[in-house]
Each structure stands twice: as C-alpha cells, then as structure tokens.
Amino acid sequence: MKFYKSDLFGISRERKTHSSIPSDHYHDAYEILYIISGELYYFIGDRTYQVVGGVLLLINMNDIHKLINSNGSMYERVTLQFKKEFLEGFLAAGEAFDPCSCFQSGSSAIKLRAQEQGFVEGLFHKMIAEHTNQSPQSDLYLKLLLIELLIFIGRKQHSGHRGLYIESNRTHKQISRIVNYINHHYAKRLTLDDISKNFYMSPSHVSRTFKDSTGFTFIEYVNNVRVKEACTLLKDSNLTVSEIAERVGFDNLTHFGRIFKGTTGSSPLKYRKLNQCR
Hints:
Layout: E1 2-5, E2 9-16, E3 30-37, E4 39-44, E5 47-52, E6 55-59, E7 65-68, E8 75-82, E9 109-111, H1 114-132, H2 138-158, H3 170-185, H4 192-198, H5 203-214, H6 218-236, H7 241-247, H8 253-264, H9 268-276
Helix pairs in contact: 1-2, 6-9
C-alpha cells in the first residue's frame, strides 16, 4: 500500500483481504471511499451498506464508520481524506458554492455507471501521481482535482440518476433502528437487556446481529458515541469533566476517564488542553 498524506489531505489505493480500521474510527476530516473491486459491507452513521466495485461512499466529519469483511474476501479501494481547511482561500470570497455540501445530502453511497467510473478513477490516479511527484504547483493542482471531484459528486446527487444506498437485508434494517436509538439516547442508561426488550429481540440475537451488521460490539458502539459527544463538549463548552461524563451517559467518572483515554489516546483534561490551544 502507498499512502501519501499531509495534515490536511491524504489519499491511498490498496488491495487487501482485511480491514485495518480501528473500532474507534471517526475523525474531524471528510472521507471519500471508492470501491474498485470486491464485495463487502460498510457501516456509516446508522446504516449498513452492501457495496461492490464502482460505488462511492461519502463519510461526513465525525461519522462513526467501519468496514465489515467477515469473509476475508479480496477487495481494492481508494481512500481519500481531507479537512475543509485544505480548500480555504481557494474559492472566491462570497462564493455561494459549498464543495462539501455533498456530505450532508443524506445519501452516503452512490453507484457509478461505467463511464463515470473511468472518469473518477482517472481523477484518483492523477491525485496519487501528483502527491507522489511533489512540485511547487502540487497543492494547487490537488485542490483543483478535489474540487472537480466534489462538483461531479454534487451534480450526480442532484441529477435524479444517483444510485440509492442498498441496505443489505431485514436484519441490518433492524440494527439500523437500534443504532439510531443509541445515537439519540446515548445520555440515558443503555444496556443490552433494555435494548432487547424495547425492540422485541433476544439479547443474544441483538448481540450477534449488532456485531455482524456494524462491526462493533454493542458496548463498543455505545462508548464510541458517548466519547464522540464528550469530545465536542470538551472543545465547545466550559462544563467540568465530571459534568460532561454525566451528560453523555457515564455514571462513574473513573470509568469515563478510562474509556475516553482508551478511545482517544489522551485523558479528558489533556484532550481539552490540546484542542483549546489550536
């Protein structure tokens, strides 16, 4: 695998049989995944998508997501990540066009036709080649290529011909409803037994199908949602760590600190200090 990356922009093309995405996978960057070949599942936000070659996946900032390849089959993909700051100053002042609006469209998966696949793969090839052979104009050219890609995606979404996402089966739809419930009720007491009763499923069935559908265990996902919300409060509020822990659903401060550090790599206080210094 070749991975060319800066603080604001990164792109890779890889062929593999397993996922290297950690269980706590979300970040403050936009991400575009393009499946070149293979068949696998992606969990994004609150839905599971069954994807094949020729599918573009759009992942908004801080959306929890995970690749699911339980069969270990071969696949090839392009991964592109960028922060909005990468494009700052590139567009004219007062420009009404928001190049990142496609990430808020409500559709995370787009199936491309054959001609469109060739066009998009050509853009990715140019991006990787430009990032490999750095020149004084590389940043400008990468921004041009990225804008061209984002304009294409936006037009595709609004053309009326975009492919709708495909949820894999009825079981995944059930889990999607549970995930949506967790996303909106993370501050409450959430146990496997409570969820099972609310959705009329056995705890063992919820446990097994939740992992199969999302790639996370039930408690892993709940903790990820709570920690993500805690990160936002640490950056954007003056609440104490204890108040934040309680607000996101932890009833034990020590447990919150342990889970937070295990997920982010730093303590809540250190995380707040680092982000306030930016």
